[in-house]
Amino acid sequence: MKVIKVAASVMRGNEKIALENQAVFRNNNVFVVNIMGSPGAGKTTLLLKTIEALKDNVRIGVIEGDIATSHDAELIHAAGVPVVQINTEGACHLDARMIQLALTHFNLAEIDLLFIENVGNLVCPAGFNLGESARVVVSSVPEGDDKPKKYPGMFRVVDAVLLNKIDLSGVFGFNINTFREDVRQTRELEIFEVSCKTMDGLSGWIDWLMGKRSAVGY
Ligand SMILES: Nc1nc2c(ncn2[C@@H]2O[C@H](COP(=O)(O)OP(=O)(O)OP(=O)(O)O)[C@@H](O)[C@H]2O)c(=O)[nH]1
Ligand SMILES: [Mg+2]
Q1: pLDDT at 35
Q2: Cα(195) to centroid of ligand 2, in Å?
Q3: pLDDT of residue 27
Q4: pLDDT value of position 17
Q5: pLDDT of res. 7
Q6: What is the CATH number of domain 2-215?
Q7: Nearest ligand to the CA atom of 42
Q8: Closest ligand 1 atom to the C-alpha of 71?
Q9: 39 lines ligand 1 (CB under 6 A)
């Protein structure tokens, strides 16, 4: 497990490096998923459950993005997959250059599926292309059902929404219909209602993920 510390670069130039990353991923047949969402939404927990479900059949790698610490990377490392932790030194998102640097620590020939856990933030990560194949947002019940309405930028750039912690719907009085309607106002998106605690709904997410990967021919 490696930890690299790298400050954010200017946005200009990001798109160029994102295209370079995309070419590297294509050349190595690596399907890359950028997982975004608020702090604590359950991104790492979802990753751990997804790794558990897939790791016997798919070679997985993970890039962890956090402002500080290697806490999430240690959890992923313990799950037995290669992981690189990026510490952004204060920046609220990952950018394409950070991913390019992290890639030098992987043997991409030995990875089929690379997950990038972005910095916990519902705004900034949406603005930075990393060269990924798919983007998802993990939203969670305790955050409230108004998040798609209040943070439309994130819901505009993703390919699917995972609504996590549905085991807590009753406690928080979460209105799933309101949430679904507001997502739909932004874009017609697949929404998976999941609980990483009870495992409800996770098979739908995993089927969707594998379907997307097959669709690009990997
Ligand atoms: N009840 C419940 N708790 C969950 C669920 N998924 C995750 N959690 C808990 O939510 C907390 C935050 O989960 P993480 O996976 O660390 O969240 P994260 O999005 O990776 O957080 P950051 O990396 O800090 O942005 C942990 O205490 C998890 O155990 C769920 O489906 N239900
Ligand atoms: Mg995390």
Answers
A1: 99
A2: 16
A3: 97
A4: 96
A5: 73
A6: 3.40.50.300
A7: 1
A8: 23
A9: yes
